[in-house]
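Help needed: design a sequence for this.
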């Protein structure tokens, strides 16, 4: 386990947060350990209050009186479903359409446009949104593709959208967003590729062309990746900041193996790729170089 995910062993029975439920250093250590083992996410001591506030809701819902009892339950064989609920509660889903717009300009210029002719001749275009949250990132990619290839839905063009949280995946699958959430989508793009939600005129729904390009799948980046083939681009932005350095290196190495030659990896503004096989290709964009592993 990363030392970043493990509080000091001294005073393990001392309360770290004062509140409705007893919450000790030992409770935090056990929760941090389970989260790290399950997802690779490292929780520093400074996150104790966040853990308490998010999981106290789970204790109330389950009628559990203490974090000690909660920890025992989620660690038991019968606690698999609640471990998933714990993971969902502790992961952060912050996203918006065309977040860091320079990435979408870059992928259009360096990935989508160069692939246009080959796709027309029967070639494939594959992009992976790893940590897609509620769908704004993969749909932004879909709209970017449609701006260059309006009939992409009839060609071999696909976006894989994965996340560990099944709740946000359900939102992405539905493809319905409120008026304020789509403000970053240009009006002309909205008029062509989105439609008003028939159930609520104040909401917008991704049109069939955009939705048909995106496949949403549950995936924990720490487990086996079942996908076959390679990707011309992978977006994994503001995800690995929650991992310790060895875990980040493993993830980036695995991304290198899944990228097509000269494929691009896009990361968050505070993230850097320091493993072999990548070279900088713009602001927080990296190009795959070197020998691609089988």
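Sure. Designed sequence:
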């Amino acid at each position: 386990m990363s030392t970043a995910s493990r509080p000091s062993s001294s005073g393990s029975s001392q309360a770290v947060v004062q509140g409705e439920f007893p919450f000790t250093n030992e409770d935090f250590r056990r929760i941090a350990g389970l989260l790290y083992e399950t997802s690779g996410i490292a929780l520093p001591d400074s996150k104790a209050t966040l853990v308490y506030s998010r999981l106290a809701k789970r204790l109330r819902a389950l009628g559990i009186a203490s974090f000690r009892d909660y920890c025992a339950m989620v660690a038991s064989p019968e606690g698999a479903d609640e471990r998933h609920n714990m993971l969902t509660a502790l992961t952060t889903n912050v996203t918006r359409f065309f977040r860091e717009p320079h990435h979408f300009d870059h992928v259009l210029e360096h990935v989508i446009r160069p692939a246009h002719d080959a796709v027309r001749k029967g070639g494939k275009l594959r992009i992976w949104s790893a940590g897609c949250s509620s769908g704004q990132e993969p749909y932004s990619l879909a709209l970017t593709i449609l701006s260059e290839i309006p009939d992409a839905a009839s060609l071999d063009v696909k976006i894989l959208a994965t996340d560990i949280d099944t709740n946000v995946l359900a939102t992405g699958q539905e493809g319905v967003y409120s008026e304020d959430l789509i403000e970053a989508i240009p009006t002309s793009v909205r008029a062509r590729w989105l439609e008003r939600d028939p159930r609520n005129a104040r909401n917008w729904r991704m049109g069939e062309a955009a939705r048909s390009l995106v496949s949403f799948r549950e995936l924990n980046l720490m487990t086996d990746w079942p996908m076959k083939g390679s990707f011309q681009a992978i977006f994994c932005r503001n995800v690995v900041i929650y991992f310790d350095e060895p875990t980040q290196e493993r993830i980036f190495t695995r991304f290198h193996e899944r990228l097509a030659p000269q494929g691009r990896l896009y990361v968050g503004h505070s993230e850097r790729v320091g493993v072999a096989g990548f070279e900088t290709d713009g602001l927080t964009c990296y190009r795959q170089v070197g020998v691609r592993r089988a």
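The chain has two domains: 3-90, 101-288.
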